[in-house]
Amino acid sequence: MQLRPPPPPEKQKKVQFKFGDEVEAFHSDGWWEGAITAEHSGGKFAVFLRGSKEQIVFEEKDLRLPVQWVKGKWEPRFEQVQREKEADSNCPKEVMKFTQGMQVEVTTDDDGFKGAWFAATIIEPSGEDEYLIEYKTLTNDDDTEFLREDIRACNIRPCPLEITVVDGFEVMDEVDAYYNEGWWVGVISKVLINCNYVVYFKEYDEKITFKQVDLRPHQDWLNGKWVVPSEV
To answer: How many separate domains does the chain show?
Structure first.
């Protein structure tokens, strides 16, 4: 058991909760981590509690932002995670070195592609902390050859670890979905029959149905190692 002081009221900002938000819900005399799975009338929300694996409807007053006790002070948990991701995405001075022929995934900040990762091969260094890569699924305008592009090292990562999913995914599991030749991060919003799932993409406020074969557990490349959301 771990002890910590109660979070001060002033740390709990007034927020507009919505589907997919990470929250803590007051239940059975304690605060339980979960995620909003549906919005109801009257300011109520259905929350999937990860600890007990049950879905319960709560009033807004019984929800709060997830918080954590970090180095002697309180801060929202998602802000800490976001800072770690931004620290890795802002091209720090020390970036991973890649070798010719290495299989990787790359991302871009271009409109319409935010949050997507595409399989690629390192061709050669093209500048300081920059590499010429060849996509494995994207082709040029006339579809005659695979597209090549110069990518900053901070937008390149090794291929994620393979994680075997034995019992399928559950509601609110964070996943990568293979769509439009790339992997897009989302969350499971509904489990269907025959290993089909509805995935919600928060960045684009869109839901799409996928087969399990086109999904993989989401992982983040943080500080030179792979981390799954449940470990953060």
So the answer is: 3
Q: Where are the alpha helices (DSSP H) in the chain?
A: 77-89
Q: What is the CATH number of the domain that holds 40?
A: 2.30.30.30
Please check whether residue 230 lies inside any domain of the structure: no
What contacts 149, CB < 8 A, 6 or more positions away?
A: 132, 133, 135
Of 94, 114, 102, 215, residue with least CA distance to 158: 102
Q: Taking the alpha carbons of 101, 226, 85, 198 in that order, is the dihedral positive or negative? A: positive
Domain assignment present for residue 75? The answer is yes
Domain span including residue 198:
174-225
DSSP line for 182-212: EEEEEEEEEE-STTEEEEEETTTTEEEEEEG
pLDDT averaged per 10 residues, the chain (length 232): 63 70 88 86 87 86 81 61 49 77 91 88 92 94 91 94 91 93 94 95 90 96 82 52
DSSP 8-state symbol, 12: S
Collapsed DSSP state (helix, strand, coil) of residue 226:
strand
